[in-house]
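Pair request: fold both.
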Amino acid sequence: MRQLVRTAPAALPAVLRAPLAMSAALATAVLVALGILHFRDSGLTGIDAALLPSIDGVRPPWRHVALVFDFGGEPVGSVILIALLSGVCWLLRQVRTAVLTVAGVVVTVAVTTVLKPVVGRTIHGEFLSYPSGHTAMATALALVIGLLLTERMGLGRAAGVALSLGLALVAGVAMGWAEVALGAHYPTDALGGFCAALAAVPGTAWVLDRVADRL
């Protein structure tokens, strides 16, 4: 008689594999296109020229809000957020998602770290800016939360995609706004960071599931 074995909940729910693969491909294309467009170029054009003057240099109390968001992307803040989300996943017995919380952020931030010197875009004449690591980190964590909720709630494809990408968008916009408002990034840097997370997290989750299934 064949023994039935209950598998661990997937890091990437089956209903989201195809749609997130497509969104990851699109995000990768945008990430690369923006990198080429702003290669060694720190000038203000297009979206940056239109948005930066109205966002950069916000005053209190909005500056305080921006600083709170920014702290979440700093080493101490990000470690706290990752530890909290990973801990919740462990308590819910979502072991793969707990691992993805760490691995997904690490891979995402690694992508932004490698791309910055390659693209060579700077802000204020000296700081490498494309893509935004803070925005990428926030988007990655929000996307992991979306994957977790989709799996736990047994959502269908449409609801799961809407929830996961919706959370990612909200987190990306919030952190991206904060980074631009504090003068740390151009708007397209934030968009690049958002795309980096959308490209990295689903792929990391898929690899994690494959490795875990083989083990």
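--- second member of the pair ---
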Amino acid sequence: MKIYVVSGLGADFKVLERLEFPENCELIFIDWLIPEKNEPFYSYVERMAEKVDVSEPFSLLGYSFGGIMVQEINKLKPAQKVVIMGSIKSDKEKSKFIKTGEITKIPRIFPVGMFNDKAANVYSVVRKLFDPKNPKILQYFRVRDPYYLKWSVEKVSEWKFEEIPDVIQILGDKDIVFPIKYSKPDYVIKGGTHLFPATKSKEVSKILKEVFV
């Protein structure tokens, strides 16, 4: 079984490197693409989905913003299983903080320069969003193209989606990006912050081995 994997916003696959899967699974990572200027979201999803081979059975796995992305890809290329970690099934599960961005359109007026990785405020914002107690947060934050980061924040705040019942959701009970109180996850990682795939890899691996049998 091939599993196509999309990591989180601005994150590479280092955050997922400790996870273990059944031996019969072949992982194929889909790297984040840099959005074209004024590219519609559906067009970006189509480009991300190009790597998915539908000639044989496959599953999709997404972390954080990657969870949103694999659900969008699933609409174009339906998978046998869709698993999301540290992510949401629909726009109804957004936190009040993210909904505020959607209503006010504030992410749209952020200057691209705000997302420059040399700016001190990016470090503070990103660290708070992912895991305020983890001093190694920036080792996971590798995709730092300012336009991509601004675009991604906009798309998360604007995302509209009807829940797909079969999507399997794994959430940490200490996640402040996508708080568990707004969702009804299939699996809960006790003490898991938004970085639970890295910090609670044994617990997550056990679940993944049950899901991908």
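Observation on the second member. Residues 33 and 47 are 8 Å apart (CA to CA).
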